[in-house]
Amino acid sequence: MSTIDDIKARLDIIDVVQSYTPLKKAGRSYKGLCPFHNEKTPSFVVFPDTQTWRCFCACGEGGDLFSFVMKAEGWDFSETLKVLAERAGVEIQPRTPQAQQKDEHREKLTRLLNSAAEFYMNLLLNDKAVRDYVKKRGLTDDTIREFGLGYAPDAWQTTLDHFAQIGYTTDDMLAAGLIIKSDSGRMYDRFRQRLMIPIHDARGNVVGFGARALADDQVPKYLNSPQGELFDKSQLLYGFHLARRDIRETETVVVVEGYMDVIQAHQAGYKNVVAQMGTALTPTQVQTLAKYANRLVMALDSDSAGVKATMRGLNVVHESLTGDNGEAAVTFDAHGMMSMSGHLKLDTRILRLPQGKDPDDFIRERPDEWGNLVNTSISLADYIINIVAKGLSPNSSIDERERAAKDVLPLLTATSNNDLYRTRNVQRLIMRLGLNQETIRLMGLAQQGQPKQKPKQGNERSTYSGGYQNRKGNRDVSPRFKQITDAPLANKIRTSPADELERYCLSILLQEPLWIYAADRKLRQLQLLADDDEMAIDALEPFTQDDFTRGDHRVLFQLIEKAGEQDALEPSEYIKQNLTPELQTLVDMVLPEPLENFHQRASEMHRTELKSVLRQNQKLVEDRLETGEFLRCVLEMRLTRIERATSELYFLDQDAETVDYKAIRGLARAKTLIQQALRDLR
Fold this sequence. Notes:
alpha+beta, five-stranded antiparallel beta sheet, 31 helices, 19 strands, 51% helix, globular
């Protein structure tokens, strides 16, 4: 039994899910409100027999224990595996001594920083002058404790002496950023006479501090922990560990500039507010927020510095995520929708505060008006055009206006291949700046900012005239099919024939990553035979991670897929360099003699279907596999997925006391086409 199977055997998905949302028994299943969306009627279903979940509301997602926790917490597979293993009491395969030593060191630093936060908070609570200062800032004792605010006294070795007495070395304190070593070798406290603001990671562990000066003559006003093993400003968002649940529920995140802005907002009841850790948002921070929110509102200070920070943030995100290979291109449409490589989409808006006010001031003075201010924030395009127009004098020359247009057109014209939105943005800019369209065209500005297209290679997936464009295309899938198939049911606790089929498929793809394209071509051929049946066409969509039932299988498939799409390395080398220790166990499991293992462990049904597998043994030895065998595998997996979707459709229809005959007929049509294709491949 693998580590993942062992975890699933020990943990009941009902117990895990109920820690996020209450469930009530409904027949053989359990129902509750979707923990990922606001809803009044329960549509979230957990199936104890298969240890899976599915949301039958608008999101239409589902999966196993691992996929649920990954979505609920925003963790990657490795982190989810670690946390669930700890909960289940399962020991993960030991890492190398070096890696284990590094983990132990990081855990020690985490304990030290958490202890430091408690130490500073106790000093604050016992110092009347500092407590009075905090109360003048409008903060309550409950807020002090919620955010762990503390006080570093005006002394050189208070922190150093305290933690030395309880067993920490100066090397530990240096690595944690709590003390400084001078050129002469003297050790002393980094933070002195400052309000201490702990900075947490997404799991709530303290990884550093932001320290505000308490004396008027202190510089700098804010002093942060240094970059280190745990503290990386580009990866962190202040207050995110407290805001995450509210961001997910409201599907909106408000980004402010300062720690006190966040603290004041949360105290006033606006808990979907976080702060960027530097002068601009980073791509990593944006990607983190996109896991939880559909709308990003940037609420930075209204002064000139705040305006510059906003524009800098937009440009940094745009430039950082727009690469020549197109793998991580960020774009904005006319409505302020921010997209990245087709998988990140954020309605990006700008909140304008009254002149001279920051969020901290505004919320303290007018807390009831903050919500309305967020709801009336303006679109990204309007904000950019307004800023450019205000930055020009009434007597500005044509050259000055053209230069201003050139600076912002990359943001305005990056519109996710939508010519209508791109033209609309450019027209609005032309009108505000008093330019003419012909001038813009001749300068070639209208094309700046468009995502660079990756040149097609021989194995690039071609455009499908029936609607499917490419693997990351924009074809709209019918909501009905998406609702019942986006995330497949997971495996049962015991290894099943479906598991073996998936592992066999992965074993082939690890050797031939580009065969994913062959699977897509075959499914496109079947789409052409679907007679314009929308449900059948959608059921025959390209081969994706959703064809795999297990969380670890899906993660490995995503890595193989990405290996085939990038050009920098050979696919096998890319997989090797990006393989995590957790996935290495799975790779070791599927690669050795995959055909032999598959034959021995498959059910009698699958032996009958795939007898020809053994006839390819010689070709496997020669490192060559027939694509026909792989296509049979893919079609079998898609057939299982459609059968599963049909069963769930019946479940949904029985619950609603209606029957969607059109959807059922579409799935049946797709099933028939796949069965015929399987017969043709034999």
